[in-house]
Design brief:
Elements: E1 20-24, E2 30-34, H1 59-64, H2 67-70, H3 82-110
Antiparallel strand pairs: 1-2
């Protein structure tokens, strides 16, 4: 029969913050190690899609983490997904094209 493990904390319920892992110590005693909660996934601030390549960190861990864990090497790296960035770039390009054609039409009307 398996050895029993008593929890170290007072809360007896199987909650998210009270999960344990059974660990056998070098002395042969079975102990309870508490598993830390994972942080929330980073989401796109425009379409709320999950961002790939960014670690699931708690807010405290995010402050201490290096920049490579918090963002990806692209414009709006840790804030917007690739499709939203693509849409922004295309929109700004079309806006510039529109301005250019508008100014050319004004020049032609003046002549």
């Amino acid at each position: 029969m398996a050895d029993r493990v008593t929890q170290r904390r007072k809360c007896p319920y199987n909650t998210k913050s009270n999960r344990i892992k059974h660990v056998k110590t070098p002395g042969g005693v079975l102990k309870a190690h508490y598993i830390k909660q994972k942080g929330l996934r980073a989401k796109c601030n425009e379409c709320n899609k999950k961002l790939n390549g960014i670690s699931r960190l708690t807010s405290v861990e995010q402050k201490r983490a290096p920049k490579s864990k918090r963002s990806v090497s692209r414009i709006f790296g840790g804030n917007k997904c690739a499709s939203c960035v693509k849409r922004l770039i295309v929109r700004s390009f079309l806006r510039e094209e529109h301005k250019a054609t508008k100014s050319k039409l004004e020049l032609l009307k003046k002549k």
